[in-house]
Amino acid sequence: MAEQLHFDLPLHVALGPDDYFVSEANREAFAMVTGEADWPNGKLAVIGPEGSGKSHLARLWQVRTGALILKAQDLDPAADLPAAGARVVLEDGDHLAPEAEEYLFHLHNHLAATGGLLLLTGRRAPARWPLALPDLASRLQATTVISVADPDDLLLRAVLTKHFADRQLQPSPRLIDWLLPRIERSFASAAWIVAALDEAALSGGLVINQSLARVILDKAHGNLEE
């Protein structure tokens, strides 16, 4: 069959409160972020693998508190500090550029001195971030850390469903039932298989079903990408 033309349309990722599924794997993180913020020393770090919902939690907190969201890799070392008592999210903190460490140091101290709150996200705990500034490293080591665990069956089902929905796909529930025991129990695997199914269906004019999923998984030999 000739390969069909398709277009890489922007992916609409739903980040509303009704789009976040809570299970035992993420219940504690959800409660700490969306409940009444009583974080020790006014700071909290939510850590977990890519695709585990850290950014989604940050958006939920932003909606509730009006927080400023900063991306660590895009942090401007010359930026002004936010207002006193601000709520600030720093996403992907383990990707902080060395030249931005001093800004984060001053931001941390500013929020601590003015009653602000700092929510950090990353794959690893702040104590394991590759920081060159000792004063910043020592302050972040005292951050309370909440981990999002690998998904249980309920969460993995919800993650698969959400990835399909974000791509405006509506597979049969039987396909999700079939996929659950056949992919790695990880957020990365859920994202990978949905993206692979979408790409194969678009490029080959195929229907997303169990047969297509079987072909993709057979070709992968069980080695799903991280």
Short description:
The chain is an alpha/beta fold. It has two domains: 26-147, Rossmann fold, CATH 3.40.50.300; 153-220, Helicase, Ruva Protein, domain 3, CATH 1.10.8. It contains eight helices and five strands.
Features:
226 residues, Rossmann fold, Helicase, Ruva Protein, domain 3, 2 domains, five-stranded parallel sheet, disordered N terminus
Outline the structure in words:
- The protein is of the alpha/beta class.
- It has two domains: 26-147, P-loop containing nucleotide triphosphate hydrolases (Rossmann fold, 3-Layer(aba) Sandwich); 153-220, Helicase, Ruva Protein, domain 3 (Orthogonal Bundle), CATH 1.10.8.
- Helix content is 40%, strand content 11%.
- The chain is built from eight helices and five strands.
- The chain has helices at residues 27-34, 54-65, 101-114, 134-140, 153-166, 173-179, 187-204, 210-220, and strands at 43-47, 68-71, 87-91, 117-122, 144-147.
- It has a five-stranded parallel β-sheet with strand order 2-3-4-1-5, sandwiched between helices.
- α1 (27-34) packs parallel to α2 and α7 crosses α8 (210-220).
- The longest helix has 18 residues, at 187-204.
- The radius of gyration is 20 Å and the shape is elongated.
- The two termini are 31 Å apart.
